[in-house]
Design goal:
The structure is a single chain. It is built from 17 helices and 15 strands. Strand 4, helix 7 and strand 5 form a beta-alpha-beta unit. It is an alpha/beta fold. The longest helix has 20 residues. Helix 6 packs across helix 9, helix 14 runs parallel beside helix 16 and helix 16 crosses helix 17. It folds into three domains: 224 residues, Rossmann fold (3-Layer(aba) Sandwich); 104 residues, Roll (Ubiquitin-like (UB roll)); 100 residues, Up-down Bundle (de novo design (two linked rop proteins)), CATH 1.20.1440.230. A five-stranded mixed beta sheet has the order 10-9-15-11-12, covered by helices on one side. It starts with 20 loop residues before the first helix and ends with a helix.
């Protein structure tokens, strides 16, 4: 039976559990940090003796942990890119700018279990020779910022932060920085620009790979809240235990934000790949199905920037079993395992882990218009294709939803979107183009029918 597996959210919703230090320590908090700081030099199979920091980095890499913020890139591999020979300070930034529409998982950790994030950040900072770290939090999370400030003060007082953490000689401080409510600040280089006090214009990569040239032109690690929280559990239980959760190349757990036309919208933590999209929407342990009398029409599997799926679609997927044998199979939409690789093969992505469900009451043109308006508003304006194209798409969709559709609108939207993707500095171009490309291609009949009806109505009005 598909069910939740709570690792990161194990205590977050437990009766009587509070977000203060006393409660966190009572439930085993900061034990993983103590373990990390007491580590001695170790031997890794096939390698020479390594430092505790190197061992922690290797554990994270061996665990198979992938980023939970959107791209699903290997966390350990990302850490390995850090330029440790430059002589410059290394910084760690927690990306808590959770702005992807449909996503509401990271804030659960911040509001309900902030010390888990702090402990994980201290371990991650220690592993990467970081002495100063930041939590960049979305501006609208006012209460979340207050909770974090309180938790950081408690951690400093208890010597979990400061100049000599738990007598180890290691020093670290963490500061909270509130953003200004801009979606583009979720992009790591735009976040860094904002943190430096500048307008959040994403940087060109190369040369501005944060691991080499990041905050204040120094090596910088940027990970999101859920990703960092997994580090504590990897160190506490070991990389092998973490890797046993989930499926090959999709290890650990994932917190899923489920919203839209389901009976039980909310957040659910599951082993990656152990449940399907259909389980998450219809099973009683998760979404509980659609409202009475309704049928499924579409699913966005990874936040509003992910490409949409149309109900009834079938896909050919490839995977490997535990012995490494390649398996090929055809599955329908509801039987796609909810993991990074399966959703990518199906033509979309798990993104920020946000599933948006649309039933047959949904006006697809209206839905896309709402998404396009958001991205047109949030474009930073640095790149011409994105700045102009996102606005053109939004204006065209606004016309269509206000009775002024034209027969060529569907192809017009596709043409604009195709000329945005791949032509911008950051991935925002894809974020605004992919919904348009997928919605129009998957539901072109509805777009064309809307435009044809509008033209017929306008012709009747002229004749009358």
């Amino acid at each position: 039976m598909p069910e939740e597996y709570r690792l990161i959210l194990k205590h977050a919703d437990a009766p009587g559990y509070s977000n203060d230090l006393e409660c966190y320590v009572k439930h085993g908090g900061y034990k993983a940090l103590k373990k990390a700081l007491k580590l001695k030099k170790k031997k890794i199979e096939g390698k020479e003796t390594v430092t505790p920091q190197e061992w922690i980095r290797e554990e994270v890499k061996s665990s198979g942990l992938r980023g939970r913020g959107g791209a699903g890139f290997s966390c350990g591999l990302k850490w390995s890119f850090v330029d440790r020979r430059s002589g410059k300070p290394i910084y760690l930034i927690c990306n808590a700018d959770e702005s992807e529409p449909g996503t509401f998982k990271d804030r659960q950790i911040i509001y309900k279990d902030p010390h888990q994030l702090i402990e994980s950040m201290v371990i991650s900072a220690y592993a990467n020779d970081v002495n100063l770290a930041y939590i960049y939090i979305r501006g609208e999370f006012v209460e979340g910022a207050k909770i974090l400030e309180k938790a950081l003060a408690e951690a400093r007082k208890a010597n979990y932060l400061g100049k000599d953490i738990l007598g180890s000689g290691y020093k670290l401080d963490i500061h909270v920085h509130r953003g200004a409510g801009a979606y583009i600040c979720g992009e790591e280089t735009g976040l860094i620009e904002s943190l430096e006090g500048k307008r959040a214009y994403p940087r060109i990569k190369p040369p501005y790979f944060p691991a080499v040239v990041g905050l204040y032109m120094c090596p910088t690690i940027v990970n999101n809240v859920e990703t960092l929280c997994a580090v504590k559990h990897i160190i506490a239980d070991g990389s092998e235990a973490f890797a046993k959760l989930g499926t090959p190349n999709n290890t650990g757990t994932r917190i899923v934000s489920l919203s839209g036309h389901v009976k039980k919208p909310g957040y659910y933590e599951v082993e990656v790949g152990k449940v399907t999209i259909g389980d998450l929407i219809f099973h009683k342990n998760f979404g509980g199905g659609l409202h009475e009398g309704r049928e499924l029409k579409a699913i966005i599997p990874g936040g509003s920037s992910a490409k949409v799926f149309r109900a009834g679609e079938k896909f050919k997927l490839k995977s490997k079993d535990k012995k490494g044998k390649l398996i090929k199979k055809e599955v329908d939409l509801l039987n796609i395992p909810y993991d990074f690789d399966s959703l990518m093969q199906a033509g979309s992505m798990s993104g920020s882990g946000a599933i948006i469900v649309m039933d047959d009451s949904t006006d697809i043109v209206e839905a896309l218009s709402n998404i396009a308006e958001f991205y047109a508003h949030e474009s930073c304006g640095q790149c011409t294709p994105c700045r102009e194209g996102s606005l053109w798409m939004s204006k065209a969709l606004h016309r269509m939803t206000h009775g002024d559709g034209r027969r060529a609108d569907a192809d017009y939207l596709l043409h604009i979107a195709q000329n945005i993707q791949g032509r911008t500095i950051c991935a925002f171009g894809e974020a605004c183009a992919w919904p348009v490309l997928s919605f129009v291609n998957k539901f072109k009949d509805e777009f064309e029918a809307r435009s044809a009806e509008d033209e017929k109505r306008k012709a009747r009005e002229v004749l009358s």
